[in-house]
Amino acid sequence: MNVLRTPDERFSNLPNFPWAPHYLTIQDDDGTDIRIHYVDEGPRDAEPILLMHGNPTWAYLYRKMIPGLLATGRRVIAVDLVGCGRSDKPAAKEDYTLARHYDWMGKWLTAMDLRHITLFCQDWGGTIGLYLVAENPERFDRVVAANTGLPIGEGESDFMKMWVGMMNAATAFPWPMLDQGMENKLSEAERAAYLAPFPSSDYEWGLISFPLLIAVQPDNPGVPLNKAAWEKLQRFEKPFLTLFGELDPVAKGWEVRAQASIPGAQGQKHQIIPGAGHFIQEDAADALVAAVTAFLSVS
Description:
Blueprint: E1 3-4, E2 21-27, E3 33-41, E4 48-52, H1 66-70, E5 75-79, E6 89-90, H2 98-112, E7 117-122, H3 124-135, E8 140-146, H4 158-168, H5 176-180, H6 188-195, H7 205-213, H8 223-233, E9 240-245, H9 254-261, E10 271-273, H10 280-283, H11 285-295
Parallel strand pairs: 4-5, 4-7, 7-8, 8-9, 9-10
Antiparallel strand pairs: 1-6, 2-3, 3-5
Helix pairs in contact: 2-3, 3-8, 4-7
């Protein structure tokens, strides 16, 4: 497997993102080394808050939340999925499968040996993160799911049909979709920061492939993996909170299923956040930090 690595100079002078990069190298089953990037701030012996982003973003998405979460005294870790951010980028579309994403991040989690985790996950960070919770429940103390879900092949919404169809033939990522996913408008410098990991479309195959891996159709190869994970999540009794954006067209409705089916979601202070779109971290960072901070005391 050929792997691309974004030059470090692409990440100089990122607005409102002062944190140093950290790296851990895992190995794909074919023997390829893959370097995964993460932000790691706060006391190393404190219980961690793990932040997982979605497509096409990276840890930069959490720049508005990290300071407030650090104020809780916790260790705050924001990881870049493989193919995103400062993490390595396999160079071919066929390199990316749902099973591989699960395996890559599972190996990272094991190597980091994180425990007593509070997970905050959104979009693909939620799908992958919830799979990690299902497979490693002993590592997680609580979960916050925002604008995400674990699809199990039950069909697609009109939005998802459009999105998958559009990306099936794509050879570059349609970056205007990033702006359409948020109500707050980015500055030119912020938009450039989101694009920094991708010097050319050769680096974008991970972003392009993500929509095709969403297991909404029954014949998607990821359906059995997600069904098995969903069965385990329905036995997850630790605190589970949903914070969904009122204007999100992507994952709308999954929070209802989670609240009804996951034992740890019973009795929690779930929220639909007014005026927030899909990239809820851009639109409602203060509300999210307040909700997570309150949730840290729930056990």
